């Protein structure tokens, strides 16, 4: 969900509100339900000029919007919202979690103290925690932080900062591991794409099918097409067709082969099928293409 382009995104002082910072602390902690139920569980698109949010959702769902993108997520997860990031939340009514809000002086201090782990506060992101080693310790730290925040006690500020630092170190570990997994996934995808292009070069004139080529790579045709779309911007079938068309144009331009001979060279059983294929992709027949080149 995003705001209308004709309406400015509001800049709030606190989570969903326009009133000023409510306490002398540089940190504010409350349950998600405390404030979101006042807004029918829907916090509309807004941003903060000088605040950073860290949300921990132990249970329940949230429809999370960052800038123009929205997705439905389930707890347990951690969400980081840096300053000036347009964001919105629509929580399920059974949501169980907390939101920790940091004023920018504290956020900058932590970013410097915990460098490089503190850089997690500068990236708008969400981190699923199910089946992750950080799940239980993060939940414990958030509960301890909330309890300490609600009562004045000796050394309160120091303990709050220590709990927050521990929380962000664990979050950074989760983020680093997720990024490493994405990098490995990207590298595997690039290797598959390179091998697929080699297979196209070796077999395009035999009219191979995408399932056959995917099987040679040891992956599904759907996975192959997803890799091609993500890394090359076209489907696997489009990449194969592009190579066939390139060779067809070369033969039509630089040789005296008949249309039927070109079709046979490229693995088409019938010249008429080659003509339909060529016209569908080039918007003219092979004969017309050859005349234009001449």
Q: Give the count of structural domains.
A: 2
How big a fraction of the residues is strand?
A: 15-25%
- Which ranges are low-confidence, i.e. pLDDT below 50, for 5 or more consecutive residues? 1-7, 15-22
**Mean pLDDT across all amino acids:** 87
CATH homologous superfamily grouping of the largest domain: Regulatory protein AraC
Query: What is the rounded Rg?
Result: 28 Å
Provide a brief overview of the structure:
With 294 residues, the chain is of the alpha+beta class. The chain contains ten helices and nine strands.
Characterize the structure shown:
The protein contains ten helices and nine strands. The chain is α+β, with helices and mostly antiparallel strands and 294 residues long. It folds into two domains: 27-179, Jelly Rolls (Sandwich); 235-294, Homeodomain-like (Arc Repressor Mutant, subunit A, Orthogonal Bundle). The strands form two sheets. Strands 1-8-3-6-9 form a five-stranded antiparallel sheet. A four-stranded antiparallel sheet has the order 2-7-4-5, with no helix packed on it. Strand 4 and strand 5 form a beta hairpin. The longest helix is centred in the middle third of the chain and has 48 residues, at 156-203. The protein is elongated, with a radius of gyration of 28 Å.
List keywords for this structure.
294 residues, Jelly Rolls, 10 helices, disordered N terminus, DNA-binding transcription factor activity, AraC family of transcriptional regulator, transcription regulation, sequence-specific DNA binding
